[in-house]
Amino acid sequence: MNLVSKILQQAVDEFAQLPGVGQKTAFRFVLHLLKKDPQELRKFGNTFLQLQEQVQYCKECFNITDREVCDICSDQRRDHSTICVVEDIRDVVSIENTEQFKGLYHVLGGIISPLDGIGPSDLHIAPLVERLQSGEVKEVIFALTTTMEGDTTNFYLSRQLQKFDVKLSTLARGVSIGGGLEYTDELTLGRSLVNRVPYESSLAK
Fold this sequence. Notes:
Layout: H1 6-15, H2 23-34, H3 38-54, E1 56-57, E2 64-65, H4 71-74, E3 79-86, H5 89-98, E4 103-107, H6 126-132, E5 139-142, H7 148-161, E6 167-170, H8 186-194, E7 197-198, H9 199-202
Parallel strand pairs: 3-4, 3-5, 5-6
Antiparallel strand pairs: 1-2, 6-7
Helix pairs in contact: 1-2, 5-8
């Protein structure tokens, strides 16, 4: 897309870098912003500056937060003996929306994928092992995508955690094979979480 204004073109190009946003959609975004009051536009820009400057990762679970420890980890009403292992923040949001899980989370930051150059050392696996050393955790739930990479990560985690006296479980197969949690409806995801099965039993299916 070639525009007469270099600044307009630059703004469109920046929006077009967002996932799922093409040049035409980016152009509509920019035109919409141009119609806004200068004060509103300034507020819009400052919000994203604050996002970069103030948002951080929880030192306990690696969830996104604006404090050192996220609201979930610091909530004493949550079940601190149960940890649900997920790939990223989107999965935390999906599970929280089911209102079926009252434990804590651990965000890996991805899954093992040799083809993409992602190995165990690139994920937050060591901190998960450290969390289990206190002896407070009694169950770890694997809630990763039901893909080859997700299953590989589950298997690797099971071997890393087998030395601890904890129950390892995984979501019931109500979640479709190859599907991500963010695309699973809340009712199905909630039932899959409530009806979770021992991890070793899931390997036989």
